[in-house]
Every structure is written in C-alpha cells, then in structure tokens.
C-alpha cells in the first residue's frame, strides 16, 4: 500500500505485536494510509487499536523509500 501511495518511511513490529513507524509523503496519501491502517490493515492483520501520534507537516521527506525494519 505504501508503494501504491508513494509513501516513504518505515515500520517495525514489536515482540508484543505492536506496530511502530514513520510515514511521510503527500498529505492526502498519508491520510489515506492512516485510514487503511485503522480500518483494514495488511492481509491477516488483526487490529485491536490504532493510534497515530506526532503528526506534523514537513517540507521534504527524510526517507527515500518505505521499508520494514527487523
């Protein structure tokens, strides 16, 4: 989904199953991704709660692509 929306950043799954990360890109794409994460998520995911923190507007992306960190 991040590639489809041309988003940049990263995610990491904690041992407890919580997802952490940063998403950067055009505002409408970030908003669409947040809605997708809140309501659907990746195939096989179970979403009990979804919280987004530290929203801010930036002039340029800090990341060149999107990755999953381990």
Count of discrete alpha- or pi-helical segments spanning 4 or more residues: 1
Considering DSSP H and I runs of 4 or more, what fraction of the residues is helical?
10-25%
Which structural class is indicated by helix and strand composition? Answer: alpha+beta
Uncertain stretches of 5 or more adjacent residues: none
Shape descriptor reads globular
CATH class: Alpha Beta
**How many β-strand stretches?**
3
Please report the distance between the alpha carbons of the first and last residues.
19 Å
Question: What are the key terms here?
Answer:
70 residues; alpha+beta; Alpha-Beta Plaits
What is this entry, summarized?
19% of the residues lie in helices and 23% in strands.
Topology:
Elements lengths: L7 E6 L5 E6 L2 H13 L26 E4 L1
Parallel strand pairs: 1-3
Antiparallel strand pairs: 1-2
Mind explaining what this structure looks like?
This is Acylphosphatase-like domain-containing protein. With 70 residues, the protein is an alpha+beta fold. It has a single domain, classed as Alpha-Beta Plaits (2-Layer Sandwich), CATH 3.30.70.100. Helix content is 19%, strand content 23%. It contains one helix and three strands, in the order ββαβ. It has one helix at residues 27-39; strands at residues 8-13, 19-24, 66-69. The chain has a three-stranded mixed β-sheet with strand order 2-1-3, with no helix packed on it. The model has no long low-confidence stretch (mean pLDDT 92).
